[in-house]
Amino acid sequence: MPAKSQPRFASKGTPARKAQTRAKRTDADGAVELTAELSEDVLQELEDGARSALDAVRSFLATVDEALPPQGGDPSRREQITDSALEMAQRLVHTQAEFLRKVVDSAGKSLSG
Q: What's the CA gap between 62 and 71, in Å, rounded?
């Protein structure tokens, strides 16, 4: 009578199975750690992007002040230009935030899957 072959997969409670479980837990811990690091990086990128946008708007407004000096009577043209610059900066920051949120979501799915 031929000898019984060993089971192909380690059964529950065997050292091999326990090692696999530990490896999975370690992989999950690593994924959580990577996700946390990525989230911190994303928050820093958002902060840096917002700061850069504000600096660009300040610089732009200084240029507008030089090109269109304030005249007591009609500030509407300056206000339109200023409002447009602020709206553009706000859209850029919002777009960056949405992009980075999608990157984090995608990375989280990849790491957990």
A: 15
Whole-number Å distance between alpha carbons of 7 and 58? 71
pLDDT of 45-60, one tens digit each?
A: 888 888 888 888 889 8
Six token digits for residue 26: 């370690």
H-type helices in the chain, by residue range? 15-67, 76-112
- The CA dihedral of 27, 32, 34, 35, to the nearest 10 degrees, is 140
0.85 cut: is pTM over it? no
Task: State the Cα–Cα distance between residues 59 and 41, nearest whole angstrom.
Answer: 27
DSSP assigned state of 1:
-
